[in-house]
Structures are given as structure tokens and as C-alpha cells.
Amino acid sequence: MMFSKPIAGCMRWGKWGACFTKAEYAAAIENCVANDILDFDHADIYGNYTTEAEFGDALVSLPGMRHKIRLITKCGIAMPAENRVQHSIKSYNTTAKYIVSCVENSLGNFSTDYLDVLLIHRPNPLMHPEEVVAAIGTLKSQGKLLHFGVSNFLPHQVDLLKNYVTVDCNQLEISITHLEPFMDGQLDYCLTHQISPLAWSPLGGNLFRDHANERHAQILKTAATLALKYNMYVDQILVAWLCQHPSNIVPVLGTTKISRLAKAKEASALRMENEDWFLLYQASLGHEVP
Ligand SMILES: NC(=O)c1ccc[n+]([C@@H]2O[C@H](COP(=O)([O-])OP(=O)(O)OC[C@H]3O[C@@H](n4cnc5c(N)ncnc54)[C@H](OP(=O)(O)O)[C@@H]3O)[C@@H](O)[C@H]2O)c1
């Protein structure tokens, strides 16, 4: 399936970040759509199980908006929260009954009758593949779910599901500060099986905040040089760097500033010179490639 680049990550829009008001959520959604950013990434747990409903509340105040956008959400992490008193510790749950009940909750939160994409948030050591397959089959046949994917799954964990249900995407941590997927087979697997890799924390999450970190400083310094060369901002260079990978990485940007999302869209089309890509790679490794 095709996602618009970048995806707007909503984890920091609510109580886990900017604490948007209803008007700010609505303005953010409208602004994204005006910039052709149509995919919104959620998880049931964001804001301690509150962000989906806040977003949904704003969404219904925008007539016709639901059908212009795509809603991605995740389930499978069960954690204690004020509105989840039945959870006494953080755990994973991927039974068919649990997945279906999470989707029903999310549909209610968004005031919609279908989700565009559901991801299993984390691999679960107790996952029975047939439970997941049954839940996804039921939800799809009821028209409540259009696409299915996973998040943080290793290739052999995707294999558990892939033969029985279409896995459209795998949301992984991929960024200039998290290089493992480039070399450990994760992105090669996505490319081989035509699974869309969605990059969470594509700007390293705290890259811009963690000033004392030597490696971060080196990355930012190198990105600043390239920003001058390509007449772009530093964050745009980091987005372009990800988008250059042949697996067609789709960044899930966590910014709460919509102008940064729009700039990232522009950057996703940039193709930097080969040596420039490796200049940043080298800055992150701390040495030249072997
Ligand atoms: N599947 C999973 O397990 C998982 C895990 C974590 C996250 N996610 C998803 O990934 C999304 C992105 O994660 P993230 O928020 O950690 O990623 P990120 O996009 O790497 O980082 C966002 C942070 O960087 C800041 N930032 C961005 N551009 C900046 C700039 N030019 N200067 C200074 N600060 C800048 C943002 O602040 P401003 O708001 O001020 O721009 C924000 O605090 C989340 O929203 C969520 O949807 C998924």
C-alpha cells in the first residue's frame, strides 16, 4: 500500500507532549491535509489511552475530513492507566478477543467505522499467530479494517504471520542515530517482501535536545554542512537521508510543528549525492566505512 510521505506521528500531540487543545488538533489536521500529508499514526496507548479520542473529537468537528485521511493505529501493549484499571502491570496481549476489543475502542475514539491500518505494536513472546490471523480476518470481513501491519517485528517474527495474512508494513526505529536496520537484514527483508518500512523516531527522537552527546553533535554538524549545500534545513537533510534508501522508507515524524512536516514532505524528494549520504553515515558510525 502507498503512504503519503511523511506520516504525521501523533504520539506527542496529546498528553505525552504538546497537550493540544481541540482547536489545535483540528488546525493541525487541516494544515496537514492542506500540505497533502494524509496519514496519521496513533497507538491506543498514546497519552495513556487518551490521544486517539482527543484526535477523534477534533476530527468529527471537521465535516468530510475522515474520508480524506488515513488512520493508522496500534494495539497489543496493555499498560496500567487511570482508564485501564484492569491492567496491573505492563504486558503484551495479542489474543483475537483482545485485538478485536482494541479495534472497537479505537473506532469509538475516532468516531469512525473503519481503520485504514492496524499494527501489532510489539512482538509478543506469547503470540499465537492463528489468534492474530483470526482477528484480522474478522475485522477485514466486517469492513472495520483495510490494512494490517506490525511494528518492531524482526523478519522471523513477520514470517509467523505473513503466510496467513498480508503484512503491509513494519514500523521500525530507523534513523541516523539508529542504523541497525540498514545492516541487520530488516530493511532487506522489507524490500524482498514488498513490506513498507515505516520509520519511527526518524529524527532520532531526542537528537535536537541532547546537546551533550558527542555523536549527536557530529551528526548535526555534518547535516548542517549538507543543509547549506542543498539549501535545506538540517531536519530536512535527515529526512532526505532516510528516504534515499531503496526500500522506500516512510518517515513517521513526531514533530508538533506542522510547518516541519510540510518541509519534510519537500525533503522526501531530494536525492543527495552518494558520498553525501555516506558522509552522514560516517558521522553516525564515528569512523569511515570498513
Ligand atoms: N511503533 C513504535 O514503537 C513507536 C515508538 C515511538 C514512536 N512512534 C511513532 O513515531 C512518531 C515519531 O516519534 P518521535 O516523536 O520520537 O520522533 P522524531 O520525529 O524523531 O522526533 C520528534 C522530536 O524532534 C523534535 N524536532 C523535530 N525537528 C526538530 C528541529 N528541526 N529542531 C528541534 N527539534 C526538532 C520535535 O520537536 P517539535 O515538536 O518542537 O518539532 C519532537 O520533539 C511518533 O509520533 C509515533 O507516531 C512509534
Compact overview of the structure:
The chain is α/β, with parallel strands linked by helices. The chain contains twelve helices and ten strands. NADP nicotinamide-adenine-dinucleotide phosphate (NAP) binds next to β10.
What does the secondary structure layout of this molecule look like, with pairings?
Layout: E1 7-9, H1 22-34, E2 39-41, H2 46-49, H3 51-60, E3 70-75, E4 77-78, E5 91-92, H4 96-110, E6 115-120, H5 129-141, E7 145-151, H6 155-162, E8 169-173, H7 180-183, H8 186-193, E9 196-200, H9 214-230, H10 234-243, E10 250-253, H11 258-267, H12 274-285
Parallel strand pairs: 1-2, 1-10, 2-3, 3-6, 6-7, 7-8, 8-9, 9-10
Antiparallel strand pairs: 4-5
Helix pairs in contact: 1-3, 3-4, 4-5, 9-10, 9-12, 10-11
The structure holds NADP nicotinamide-adenine-dinucleotide phosphate (NAP).
Helices and strands: which structural class?
Answer: alpha/beta
On the 0 to 100 scale, the average pLDDT is 97
User: How would you spell out the order of helices and strands?
Assistant: EHEHHEEEHEHEHEHHEHHEHH
Strand order of the largest sheet: 1-2-3-6-7-8-9-10
Number of strands: 10
> Residue share in helices?
40-55%
Characterize the main sheet. Answer: 8 strands, parallel, barrel
The radius of gyration computed from the alpha-carbon positions, rounded to a whole number of angstroms, is 19 Å
What best-fitting shape do the alpha-carbon axes yield? globular
Unreliable spans:
none
Assess the beta-strand content as a share of residues: 5-15%
Small molecules (ligands, ions, cofactors) in the structure:
NADP nicotinamide-adenine-dinucleotide phosphate
Give the terminus-to-terminus CA distance. 36 Å
Count of separate DSSP helical elements? 12
